[in-house]
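Dear colleague,

As promised, here are the two records you asked about, laid out in our usual form so they can be pasted straight into your sheet.

NAME FIELD: protein one
SEQUENCE, THEN STRUCTURE:
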Amino acid sequence: MNWKKWFWTLVVLDIAVVMLFAVWLFQPAKPISVPSPKKVKGATFTVYSNKEHLNTVINDYIRKKAKDHPVQYRVWLDDRVYVASKLPVFGRKMDLVVSFIPKVVKGGNVVLESPEISLGDWELPVTYVLRYLRKHAPLPDEVIIDPKVNRVYVALTDIRFGNGYQVSARKIDLAKDEIVFTLTIPTSAKQ
């Protein structure tokens, strides 16, 4: 074979790889259904917290839920909600950082909006990365990624802690370090 045939074979191979990557990247996402808030009957308490304490609780919960998964990540609250992981890219690990602005929605759940995403020094298209995370990240069932509207829904009221405790958000103001939740402890005694 002469060099022209090798050249055209390589061009066709490159085009095929790019097309396969594009098909994988642009495949449609499954429809998202946001659960309705669930109420637990019991004694309720208002809990005031800050970013430092909440960071500890969130990462402990994630560590337990994703302990055996190969993709590990951590979350921290600062001026925004940050999620960081390391992804293998061309044989080396690169930092993937996604940040959101949290918003409390009716019923005590949280929506993470206005995502910003970077891989190393590169800014990435939000929709494609959210699709990737939805497919490959070991997320708890209570975290729903919706790439069509570039948001993440956190169904706090569906999370059950020890003895069935339920948490719902009332206020999240990261700039003032004010985080307020309602903690409901189920009771079985009839009054």
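NAME FIELD: protein two
SEQUENCE, THEN STRUCTURE:
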Amino acid sequence: VDPEKALKNTMSWGTLGTVRPFSNFWADRDAAEIQSALERKDAVNLVRVLTNRSNAQRQLIADAFREMAQKDLEAGVKKAVSGELASLLLELLMPPLEYEARRLQQAMVGLGTDEETLMEILSTRSGQQLQDISAAYKFTYKKDLEKELKAETSGDFAKLVVALLNKQSVAGSVQTDTESLAASVNGKKAEAGPWIAVLTSRDQDHLKRVLMGLEVQCGQKVDQVLEKNFSGDIRLGLKILAQCSRNPYVYLAKRLTSTKASIVHGVMVSHCEEDLLCIRAAYLKLTGTSLYTALQKQYKGEHLQALLAVCRSED
């Protein structure tokens, strides 16, 4: 599947996701089935039901389960299964905005900040989605996301993440933007300001043209320009943002080559109802292996079965 072709031929269910609503859906029936699976610690049926329903349907199942069993489904899952499988199923049970808010919170909690996860979410979500995620963050953690980001980051990187959180598309001139970026790396010390201003406020088509123009002007790939002129967090942040401005699916496919289950879960759960088909196509092009096959080399047991169900099929 070519991601661009896939976008044009939107699937018949109207999404480029791999997980779609289950057609013959009855929340009460699913809740009863899950209740008996939890009692028997039957992970196979638990995985089958939860990975074959959309998130909206899972929320209805959780409500029906609460009424039927007089306890939360999350508590039942934690008791019946453990490890990576439990993590994945609990993530699938979270409403999408709450899940993204939790990923941001987890990236900032404890020692050290996971800058790459912050950048992944902030770079691949629209301004409106980020406003909704901010509201979910405030509701869940009783804290302001922008203030938290400022407290957990510093310098130019802090400016970058805050600009991304508040991004709005503003029209600009391709030539002016290209010259501004080229000038920012021509002095004694490279300036991040123009990069932050341009990369967080223009639409994708505009940025593709700016970055192509910059490569012609500098005689180097954008990655090389950033590598040579910046260091630390801001270099990482600008490289991710430049990559996502060109093709977010390639960047997300690279994320899926990680050996960390938490990163793989993050991308797959976040994108399974939106555009995982495009990410799968980019993964195949990038690695020469389908995501479906790659998962089988890395994971096993019911955890693998759940990941394969979310991935959905071989490319």
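A couple of things worth noting about protein two: The chain is about 70% helix and 0% strand. Residues 55-69 form the longest helix (15 residues).

Best,
R.
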